[in-house]
């Protein structure tokens, strides 16, 4: 019996590579022109979005069960198209329409979350850089909160061009920019998967699974440079695959498209360009090693060399600040992981988020089960790919990327690694989604039509989607609502924006301010102020706010940073920091509750501070720097 099982396993896994593996059924010309279930599913999807909108209204008014309504509406929106896409019957047109419906619908959820102005922290940073371009007509202006941001002007150039050509305000132009990027990305990633697999069913399922990644709903839908860079990265991958499988008549045109997309990625986002570089080098290396005499292998090697040269040239000659920005984070995460492995440190508890806030046990169960399911699917998918497609290099590249995902998630056990592990998720899912799609089409072959199997498969995909929603942002930030302190989107509201606009009108731009994290971002974005922080001046200013009185070291910091204005938010005496800190991550663990009122009121008793603004919620003090040497 044991020998029989071993022989069957060897035949199933290690058997000869199957040169003709078909995952699509034959579709007639009449079916190709038919939209299938798309009209009715689009109506159901609209009802799901209506439910999300009502959940957001309930969240703003703090009604009961608005979070449950949010999750149920997402289920309605996502389950029905997932059920249909798993079926072998939809034609290519219908699959594309369903995928675009999901992609655009998920972007509309983000827009409904913040319909009046940008509220995500990264959006505020990009907004400032874009405003500077509109005002000065020059690139590479300084941004005190994100020094490397202006060095990657791809997103800002597109958004400001729309403003200049249309007369729209920057917020509307930014929304349209990311909407166009979302549509392009869904089409691009679908076409890339389709070129690799040669089957619309595989590519549509892989695209559907990619949309379950935690970044797709909010992070890669915000007005930030990664949201656009993943589009140009997808264009590079799609163009390369088309180039390697096309005739010579289209080779030159495709090469031009690929090179332009590569350059666009490099000038848009650092992390995306480095990931793309690694993927291209891996792809080119496999083709060269296994197919040395193949012209495609030589082309990939040439393109890999070009990618290396232009990526590092931009980093060294234009964006060398990126080195000091990324290296400490990466090296710190690796060192912390080594300490955890060697048991020199206990490691971070996975029962809480990066800010130390405990995650509800129900959501923990969802997260652990989804992660386990992904890991098992990757292992099974790798076996299927080795059995059927090991002669196809793109399959192997995507498999390697997928299998590297568990390795990157080890960083979640460290103190500084969770953010890094989360940031690579959107890129790793290109491999994860494709490998999992291969598992799906092998377990749900075209020759078997079972509505029960489709239901189970769609339910599992929705379960993975829910997991992505849970991991997307902390629970308090997933839905809009009343003000909370240090809670990113929940902290951005009219009072803070109006205060920032007041500083622009009455103080002028580029005043040297210190403030908490959120008000600092608002002053930077809407007031045009320069925020003195550790990121730009290497000065820790949080002790100026937290101490009951100022010591000589605090006064020295005021002088070194030439700090002209101090912003204090009275609400910190009523609201604890949801993110674990008000001003700087070094405060983590200092608060049992809220700030002491004495820390806020101390400036009124100090000679060097003159209160020039007070609306009952926020106060601004002007600092007398005449005492500085």
3D architecture notes:
With 629 residues, the protein is mainly alpha-helical. The chain has two domains: 35-478, no CATH class; 488-623, Rossmann fold (3-Layer(aba) Sandwich), CATH 3.40.50. The protein is 63% helix and 3% strand. The chain has 26 helices and five strands. The chain has a five-stranded mixed β-sheet, with helices on one face. The model is unreliable at 11-21 (pLDDT under 50).
Fill in the keyword field for this structure.
629 residues, 5 strands, globular, Rossmann fold, mainly alpha
Q: What is the overall number of helices?
A: 26
Radius of gyration: 26 Å
- The assigned structural class equals mainly alpha
How many domains, in number, for the residues?
2
Please tally the β strands and state the result.
Answer: 5
Give the oligomer, counting copies of the same chain as homo and different chains as hetero. Answer: single chain
Residue fraction in strands: under 5%
The backbone outline, from C-alpha atoms, is globular
Low-confidence stretches: 11-21
Summarize the topology.
Elements: H1 2-13, H2 29-32, H3 38-60, H4 66-86, H5 92-113, H6 121-136, H7 154-166, H8 170-197, H9 200-210, H10 225-245, H11 251-266, H12 270-290, H13 295-317, H14 321-341, H15 361-389, H16 393-408, H17 417-423, H18 425-443, H19 451-472, H20 475-478, H21 494-506, E1 512-514, H22 517-526, E2 530-531, H23 534-537, H24 542-546, H25 552-560, E3 565-569, H26 597-601, E4 609-614, E5 618-623
Parallel strand pairs: 1-2, 1-3
Antiparallel strand pairs: 3-5, 4-5
Helix pairs in contact: 3-4, 3-5, 4-5, 4-19, 5-8, 5-9, 6-7, 6-22, 7-8, 8-9, 8-10, 9-18, 10-11, 10-12, 12-13, 12-16, 15-16, 15-18, 15-19, 16-18, 21-22
């Amino acid at each position: 019996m044991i020998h029989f099982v071993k022989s069957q396993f060897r035949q199933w896994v290690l058997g000869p590579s199957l040169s003709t593996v078909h995952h699509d059924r034959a579709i007639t010309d009449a079916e190709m022109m038919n939209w299938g279930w798309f009209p009715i599913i689009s109506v159901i999807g609209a009802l799901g979005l209506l439910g999300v909108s009502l959940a957001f209204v309930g969240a703003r008014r703090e009604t009961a069960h608005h979070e449950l309504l949010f999750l149920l509406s997402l289920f309605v929106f996502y389950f029905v198209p997932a059920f249909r896409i798993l079926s072998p019957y939809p034609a290519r047109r219908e699959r594309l329409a369903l995928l675009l419906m999901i992609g655009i619908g998920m972007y509309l959820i983000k827009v409904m979350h913040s319909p009046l102005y940008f509220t995500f922290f990264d959006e505020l940073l990009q907004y400032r850089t874009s405003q500077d371009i509109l005002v000065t007509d020059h690139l590479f202006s300084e941004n005190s909160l994100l020094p490397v941001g202006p060095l990657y002007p791809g997103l800002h150039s597109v958004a400001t061009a729309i403003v200049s050509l249309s007369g729209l305000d920057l917020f509307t132009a930014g929304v349209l920019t990311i909407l166009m990027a979302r549509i392009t990305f869904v089409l691009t990633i679908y076409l890339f998967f389709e070129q690799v697999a040669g089957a619309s069913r595989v590519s549509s399922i892989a695209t559907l699974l990619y949309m379950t990644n935690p970044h797709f709903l909010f992070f890669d839908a915000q007005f930030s440079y990664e949201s656009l860079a993943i589009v140009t990265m997808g264009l590079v991958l799609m163009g390369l695959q088309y180039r390697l499988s096309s005739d010579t008549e289209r080779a030159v045109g495709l090469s031009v498209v690929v090179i332009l997309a590569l350059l666009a990625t490099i000038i848009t986002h650092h992390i995306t360009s480095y990931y793309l570089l690694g993927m291209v080098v891996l792809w080119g290396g496999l083709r060269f090693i296994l197919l040395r005499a193949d012209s495609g292998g030589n082309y990939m090697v040439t393109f890999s060399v070009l990618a290396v040269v232009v990526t590092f040239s931009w980093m060294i000659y234009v964006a060398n600040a990126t080195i000091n920005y990324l290296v400490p984070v990466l090296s710190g995460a690796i060192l912390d992981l080594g300490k955890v492995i060697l048991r020199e440190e206990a490691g971070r508890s996975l029962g809480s988020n990066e800010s130390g806030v405990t995650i509800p046990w129900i959501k923990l169960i969802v997260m652990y089960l989804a992660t386990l399911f992904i890991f098992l699917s990757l292992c099974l998918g790798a076996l299927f790919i080795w059995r059927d497609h090991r002669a196809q290099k793109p399959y192997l590249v995507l498999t390697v990327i997928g299998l590297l995902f568990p390795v990157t998630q080890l960083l979640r056990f460290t103190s500084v690694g969770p953010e890094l592990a989360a940031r690579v998720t959107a890129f790793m899912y290109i491999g994860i989604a494709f490998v999992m799609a291969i598992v799906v089409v092998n377990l749900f072959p075209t020759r078997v039509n079972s509505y029960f199997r489709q239901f189970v498969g769609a339910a599992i995909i929705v379960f993975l989607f829910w997991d992505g929603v849970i991991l997307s942002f902390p629970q308090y930030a997933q839905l809009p609502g009343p003000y909370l302190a240090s809670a990113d989107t929940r902290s951005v509201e009219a009072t803070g924006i109006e205060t920032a606009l007041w500083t622009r009108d009455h103080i002028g731009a580029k005043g040297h301010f210190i403030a908490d994290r959120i008000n600092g971002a608002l002053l930077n974005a809407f007031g045009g102020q320069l925020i003195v922080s550790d990121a730009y001046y290497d000065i820790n200013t949080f002790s100026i706010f937290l101490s009951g009185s100022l010591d000589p070291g605090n006064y020295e910091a005021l002088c070194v940073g030439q700090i002209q204005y101090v912003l204090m938010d009275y609400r910190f005496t009523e609201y604890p920091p949801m993110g674990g800190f008000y001003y700087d991550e070094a405060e983590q663990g200092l608060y049992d509750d809220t700030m002491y009122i004495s820390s806020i009121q101390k400036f009124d008793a100090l000679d060097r501070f003159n209160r020039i603004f007070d609306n009952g919620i926020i106060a601004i003090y002007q600092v007398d720097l005449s005492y500085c040497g």
